[in-house]
Amino acid sequence: MPVKILSVDDENDLELLLTQYFRRKIRKGEYEFVFAHNGLEALTMMLKHPDVEIILSDINMPEMDGLTLLAKINEMRNPALKVIMVSAYGDMGNIRQAMNNGAFDFATKPIDLDDLSVTIEKAIEQINYVHAMQVEHQQLESLKSDLAVASDIQQAILPRINPSEFQDRIEIAALMNPAKDVGGDFYDFFLIDDTHMGFTIADVSGKGIPAAIFMAVSRTLIRATGIRGVKPSECLNYVNKLLVQESVDCMFVTVFYGIMDLQSGEIVYCNAGHNPPYILKNDGHVAELPSSANPMVGAIGELTFEQSAVTLGKGDTLVMFTDGVTEAMNSALEEYGEQRLVAALGTMKQYSCSDIIDGVKASVAAFVEGAEQSDDMTMLTIKKL
Question: How far is the C-alpha of 76 from the C-alpha of 78, rounded, in Å?
Fold first, then answer.
């Protein structure tokens, strides 16, 4: 598309002068000129030609002068519209006022057309830059909108807590707070049969959109496999084989997956490289589950994951979390750490599951003192009633 230039001048011979000097660019389709003889006529021409990008305007004209026209153009707030003011050399006061009021550049009469040509090229460079920034801004706005939708979808796929589903046998609460619009952490829980519930908490390597996609795939595979009632170790063995085949850029996921007997409180679990959960005992004592030698899921193929078991007594709470909790940093780059987490849990004797999560969240927030969240923070708590 040619660059459209509006020349505004009450001297008729300027029209012939411009079209003659720039005839080659006009012929090649690089420039297109339209003409007006005063400010009012210029505004009318701009309505007819909204794609005008450069205006060559005389300052002294009848009906509406160039300075008034410049003020009207400024009201349009179009950063890609460049105004080059034209006036006699002795009219420097008005030229200076025009430059202070936002004119791109100026030319003096009699017009040096070679110099004007250079000025127009400079204006075109600025216009192209503005257009590029506008395109990039539109793309960023579109991406921002997509991320907002993706964040809503990601939150929507997480399970909703329905206390009646567990018939007062357990209490459960969860939190997933991504560091960016979307995250790589997730939690899940689902009934396998009337007396057994599968549950998981996991942390995908990386952040942002790639982690969110890998998170959705991992969650779907674990749920689809676990809901068949297979052992936790068998579930992660199978999911690992699938994820190793599909992993891009060596992505992996740490997973704690367990099956709880809702009547006895026994939990058979498999910890694949995840932070060992804590058990907050009914008497306030905090016990850590043993560390696991299992690697992360999706990192290495042909592995055999080992499982363990633990039993929750009446009033005991299993507290699971991702490293976004313990590795939360304050402005001095100090980590919250497991000792602070254990100390905080130790003050939450007989707290409800949701109160435990709120308490840990408040403890972390007090420690970081407003520092930017650097990692996704997810928690899942299960209490035996």
Answer: 6
Q: Check whether the bond before 110 is cis (ω within 30° of 0).
A: yes
| Same domain, yes or no: 227 and 340 | yes
In a domain, residue 145? The reply is no
Q: Measured between alpha carbons, how far apart are the two ends of the chain, in Å? A: 73
- Cα 368 to Cα 373: distance, rounded to the nearest angstrom: 9
What is the number of domains present in the chain?
Answer: 2
Question: How far from the centroid of its chain's Cα atoms is residue 99's Cα?
Answer: 39
Tokens of 385: 């009633």
Write the burial class of residue 281 (CB in 10 Å: 0-12 exposed, 13-18 middle, 19+ buried).
Answer: middle
Per-residue model confidence (pLDDT) at position 203? 93
Dmax (CA) for the chain in angstroms is: 99
Domain around 49 = 3-136
What is the helix, strand, coil percentage profile of the chain, to 5? 40, 25, 35
93, 19, 5, 16: which is closest to 57 by C-alpha? Answer: 5
- Identify the pLDDT of residue 163: 63
292 C-beta neighbours (distance < 10 Å), count:
18
Run means of pLDDT, 10 residues per run, the chain, 385 residues:
93 89 94 94 93 94 91 91 89 90 91 93 94 89 74 74 77 88 86 94 84 87 94 95 80 95 96 96 94 89 90 96 94 93 94 96 93 89 95
Tell which residue, 5, 102, 119, has the closest CA to residue 51.
5
- The single-letter code of the amino acid at 355 is D
Rounded to whole angstroms, the Cα distance separating 303 from 292 reads: 14
CB 25 within 8 A of CB 31: yes
Region at 332 (left for phi over 0; alpha for psi -120 to 50; beta for the rest)? alpha
Kindly report the CATH number assigned to the domain that includes residue 260.
3.60.40.10
Q: How far apart are CA 95 and CA 87, in angstroms?
A: 7
pLDDT for 303: 82
* Cα separation, 96 vs 223, whole angstroms: 71
Q: Give the model's pLDDT for residue 247.
A: 67
